[in-house]
Amino acid sequence: MMRIIRIALSILAAFWLLLNSNCAIMQWQRQYLGDPIMYFDKNGDETKLNNHIYPRREGSGGGYGGAGGGCGC
Which residues constitute the domain of residue 50? Predict the structure, then answer.
C-alpha cells in the first residue's frame, strides 16, 4: 500500500512541476520576436522588403497585418 502511495505522490509531484514550469520570455529577449527570421515565410527578409515597397508601388497600404503589442504575446 505504501508503494502505491509513493508512486502516486511522485506522479502528482511530476505533474505539478510540469504545470508550474515557466516558459516566459525575458524582457531583453523580446526584441527577437519581431526579427524577420521569425516569419512563417521561407525568406523573411524579402517579405519584409516587399511589404515595405508594395504600398509605394500600388498607392495603397494595409491589409497584411496589424499593430502589435510590445509585450511579446
Answer: 23-59
